[in-house]
Amino acid sequence: MEVLEKKVWVLEDRQQLPGSDAPGILEWLEQQIRAAENAKFSAALRRDQDDVNYWRGYEKALSDLKDLIERREVRA
What we know:
Strand content: under 5%
Keywords: Plasmid
Structural class: mainly alpha
Distance between the termini: 26 Å
Number of helices: 3
Radius of gyration: 14 Å
């Protein structure tokens, strides 16, 4: 997945959150990463390798996006 596609995908998902209760983007990404880790662990316990691979990829995509955002904030 290209970096731009990741950003658009996350931003579209974030727009669905209620405005007043929406967490910051980094906070939201951390929540999603934790949820993906939990789902990956659960799939591993069920020995469902397809789900493990799916959640591993989802977690990596979110982590990569979070790293990109953090690096840009540090440079600013």
